[in-house]
Design brief:
It is a single chain. Strand 2 and strand 3 form a beta hairpin. The chain has two helices and six strands; from the N terminus they run αβββββαβ. The radius of gyration is 17 Å and the shape is globular. The strands form two sheets. Strands 1, 4, 5 and 6 form a four-stranded mixed β-sheet that branches. With 115 residues, the protein is an alpha+beta fold. The protein has one domain: 2-Layer Sandwich (Alpha-Beta Plaits).
């Protein structure tokens, strides 16, 4: 049976992967002062996910893509976390909002200077 720190690291990594699968999430972030993090074996940190102890909430800090209203996105990310961990409180910090990636297919008439 794996020991508790290894299991906690596995859980944090599983939550991180699930959150990153959301199409509106560009990346995880450490939040203010890099405090939203889980500590992994080997003195490594996983920024953007902090699994609370006891009644503490799971904390997420994310950079998101423009488009989804932030209150809706917070609810969706909470549901993602609860899908992995069960009924837990979740706090979401939006560290930044970025433009969605440009389409690989050029738009007709787009990106050309006006005549």
């Amino acid at each position: 049976m794996p020991d508790a720190p290894d299991r906690a690291a596995d859980v944090a990594a599983e939550v991180a992967a699930a959150v990153l699968d959301h199409p509106a999430v560009a990346r995880l972030d450490g939040g203010p002062f890099g405090t939203v993090a889980s500590y992994l074996p080997g003195r490594r940190r996983l920024l953007g996910v902090r699994i609370g102890a006891g009644d503490e909430p799971v904390e997420l800090a994310v950079v998101v893509r423009l488009g989804t209203p932030l209150p809706q996105l917070a609810e969706e990310l909470g549901a993602v976390v609860r899908g992995v961990l069960g009924p837990v409180p979740v706090e979401v910090t939006f560290s930044d909002v970025v433009s969605p990636p440009r389409s690989a297919t050029p738009r007709p008439g787009g990106d050309r200077p006006d005549p």
